Amino acid sequence: MELRGTETRPLLNRGPSLGVRALLLCFLSVLLMVLDHQQGTLANLRNGISVAVYPVRFLVNLPFSVARWADDSLASRDQLINTNATLQGQLLQQNARLQKLAALEAENRSLRAMMQSSSEIADEVKVTEIISVALDPFQHRVVIDKGTLEGAYQGQALIDEQGVMGQITRAEPFSSEAILISDPSHAIPVEINRNGLRSIVVGSGEVERLTLPFLPNNADVETGDLLVTSGLGGKFPAGYPVGIVETVEVKPGEPFALVMARPTAALNRSRRMLMIWPTELPEPSLPETELGLEEGMIMTEPDAESPETGIVPEAVPAAESPVQTGADEAAPATTEESE
Question: Per the count of CB atoms within 10 A, which of 41, 70, 223, 330 is most buried?
């Protein structure tokens, strides 16, 4: 008769209980998050993990790249002929416009020489591609395929062929994370191209809508006005299109009008963007600190007396008082025009 081995169990459980272990793990996680938030302790570890995860992102994006390559390779001859004819027509039109722009540029250079002003050099750009988007519907963020090895840096502006897309919030060796201008936590200083009135554009959480919450009721703003970057935030170069004003609703009894704009960039359709290395930018309105860019863009609810409290456009630290560029400067501009 075969004897079965008996299982031996310890009489007393050794080590802490599961509840104590879970509590210790939670405390350790909170401690690491606080240290990383204040001192950037885990920045090198995060970069290392991003390098390890990059092949996974590449494999996820591989089917789409192969599909686009196959679509381009298997295009019919008629489609290629039609596309070629269309591009040639567009090239002729653009060349005709460039001839006029060349004359204007020469005239501009002569005027600057007479005014003893230095000529401006075009910003350096590089094409990048979106490889993934945030799954959170309340965050408008994307991941692009260019990182610090390609010269990307935190706070770098991104545009497409129609206007401003957003800016880089975290640059990693092979990829970078960017926030779009439609994100509710993003703000960008702008000016109305028609009259130079300055204000702040804030993301609304919808890709087809931006808000200008700090324009007074008597501000000189009209439907169809073009909003361009003012360059005062220290991140975005001046003169790039941001949006077009769609609705202006004056609210009696309230200090600010309800102004909505439509972004000029195709935020939910563009797959390729341009990274900008500006040749000249004004100094930021407030000194930067060691706080990250995302902390600088955190916004809180404004109060009635100080409407811009809590709004920190671009990389201005949220702990300091923001510079009032919207309401305080908009009111004097309208007063002078009325006089």
Answer: 330
- From first to last of the 339 residues of the chain, give the pLDDT tens digit: 455 555 555 555 566 778 888 888 898 888 888 887 777 777 777 788 888 888 888 888 888 888 888 877 777 777 888 888 889 888 888 877 777 776 777 777 767 765 554 444 467 888 899 998 887 778 899 999 999 999 999 999 999 888 999 999 999 999 999 999 999 999 999 999 999 999 999 999 999 999 999 999 889 999 999 999 998 888 888 889 999 999 999 888 888 999 999 999 999 888 888 999 887 654 554 443 333 333 334 454 444 343 333 334 444 333 343 334 333 444 444 434 433
Q: For residue 177, give the 3-state DSSP assignment.
A: strand
Cα angle 315, 316, 319 (rounded to 5 degrees) comes to: 130
Angstrom distance (rounded) from CA 337 to CA 210: 26
Return residue ranges of the chain for CATH 2.40.10.350: 187-266+298-338
Output the pTM of the full model.
0.57
Amino acid at 158: L
**Cβ neighbours, 10 Å, residue 259:** 24
Written as one string, the DSSP assignment of 281-313 is -PPPSS---SS-HHHHT------SSSTTTT---
**CA 71 remoteness from chain centre:** 31
3-state secondary structure of 192: strand
